[in-house]
Amino acid sequence: xxGFRDIDIIRAIVxxxxxRAASDATGLAQSxxxxxxxxxxxxxxxxxxxxxxxxxxxxxxxxxxVEEAEILMAQRDRILGELTQGVMAGVVRxxxxxxxxxxxxxxxxxxxRARHPQLRFEISVDTSEQMAQMLSGDxxxxxxxxxxxxxxxxHMTPLPPVTLGWFAxxxxxxxxxxxxxxxxxxxxxxxxxxxxxxxRRVLDLLSPGxxxxxxxxxxxxxxTVLHLVGQGFGxxxxxxxxxxxxxxxxxxxxRTRPEARxxxxxxxxxxxxxxxxxxxxxxxxxxxxxxxx
Length: 293
What we know:
This protein has 293 residues and is α/β, with parallel strands linked by helices.
């Protein structure tokens, strides 16, 4: 309906007090300015200026148009300034494995907010398998996920490993110390979701040669796992950092024999470089710093 040049001309008319003065200020012919205003009024179906013997003045509709247009002009100037001055702004779609929401994510986002206050984040907490599909389908810009499940063509930077332990409520469970694989397999177990790599690793560790299936319950919520283990539903496989962050969960680590220890979780920050190189590099920097603190 109208362009920024139309608004520039209307502002010049208002600022300089008439069409002739606006012509002198802009270098446009007075006839060209008059013609442009008439065409704009025709397109919009409104009267922008009232003309009388003393000059011109804005109508009520004209004042509303100028007021709203000033907001658009300010937004235009802000966007141009951000783009030309290297300011990071806009929405970043960030996928995060739930383990990371309790560890590096708060420090990462606090760092980015301080450096780039114009950024906004849409955070999705999901399994690494789901995030790999979302990265490939351009439904995420950046993801913090299990390294082994990153899709092809991804730019991947490893993060410090996350160590896992076996935990139980001492009120409800009393296991040998150190506990072996058979001792653990005899208990109900709460672990990561069924489709995830950590869940499969628990089954691979406990199941070989066993006649009766091991009872491994999966949950996508670490808070739920902590609560279930604390209430005595079962023993749990939980990252050490999570337990340290929840000191009142009422659980203790089970000392195990070497063969019963769980492998570390290897995470990485990932993005598709052809689509999200600049923001990917900045989030990678922040994630590495957050992981080292």
